[in-house]
Amino acid sequence: MTEKINHIGIAVKSLDASIPFYRDGLGMTFEGTEEVAEQKVKVAFLQVGESRIELLEPTAEDSPVAKFLEKNGEGIHHMAYEVADIEAALADLKEKGVRLIDETPRRGAHNSLIAFLHPKATGGVLTEICQCGH
């Protein structure tokens, strides 16, 4: 079902303060920023090999990322795995009894389709599955 690790999401207070470490310090390729209004975040993607780091800065105090930062501070927010067919993947996971946050896909960054699995079903790790390019 999963094809690869698409990205690792890292919650940050400021993209401007965080991007230089990954781009300049670690030498990752900066791909730009994008606002994802539905998620109330602004994201920056940095390429590393065939995967990416996704930095997430909240754009509203009530965003899930703002709540994460308040509770946990900056750090790893989620792991994202790429799938070829997100609807089939969600149906398969549901059939296997995996607890889903999203039963249907929603829009994510880069015009992708995304869905989150509940951390209680994934060993405590917020897990995203994504289908790119739609």
Automatic annotation (TrEMBL):
Gene Ontology MF terms in the entry: lactoylglutathione lyase activity; metal ion binding; methylmalonyl-CoA epimerase activity
Keyword annotations of the record: Metal-binding
Annotated ranges, domain VOC: 4-132
Gene Ontology process terms (BP): L-methylmalonyl-CoA metabolic process
UniProt keyword Metal-binding, yes or no: yes
Top-level taxon in the UniProt lineage: Bacteria
Family per record: Belongs to the methylmalonyl-CoA epimerase family.
Protein name: Methylmalonyl-CoA epimerase
Organism: Malonomonas rubra DSM 5091
